[in-house]
Amino acid sequence: MKPQIFLMTGLLPVSGCADDRLMITSPDKSLSVQIHLNPENSRNLTYSIQSQSRPVISDSPISLEFKAMAPLGANLVLKRKRIRSVNEPWERVWKRRKKVVNRFREMTLFLEEGSEPFRRFNLTFRAYDDGIAFRYEIPEQKGFELFRITSESRCFRFVEKPAVWAAEYGYASHQEAAFQEMTMVQIGDRIMGLPVLINIEETLWAAISEADLTDWAGMYLSSGSEGSLVRKLSPLPDGPGISGTWAA
Questions:
Q1: What's the pTM?
Q2: Domain CATH code at residue 121
């Protein structure tokens, strides 16, 4: 059997599921992602991923922590959603395969805190035939013009305990190192660079990477609890945190 590999990056049938879950599927229906809003959980925003109906990533939280501000990711209420489907060809300037088809299904969730200060938070998921991507956006809003993120609580909680191929770059390096096979437990608190390759089972592999990164901290990974990889943001040279501003 030909091994299947899909890419998870940190950015249309859409159906509501039990306990406030929303689900999107890839155009060929091979991949799906569920987004869960649970108001009874302190971290009520989670996602999970399935490949060919097989659970790959179980409920994994998404939240942001700020300096001198309350975290953003709990007590979120879905205000509305936007759905679109894209199927468009484009051509590379060079490379072996010149024509490429950009095909995906996308859902954007417009979220807002259910209590003061009612901060808004947008989350977009894309389902490709060979990958799941998601990104978040903090829209311009009064009282949130300047912020410093100290931590981004985003993790990849795998159902199994797969083997991992990763390179230990650290935050300040030339990012050239050999990729080593290891378990998630062996990664520990070491800082692993991207991409990270995961062997979920004999015929299923996954890669974690990021794209479209402008004026933002790069993503690194360390191991967390329950067979998870935890996102780490590269800190400022003078201490933890990433500043962000919105232009008026």
A1: 0.82
A2: 2.70.98.10
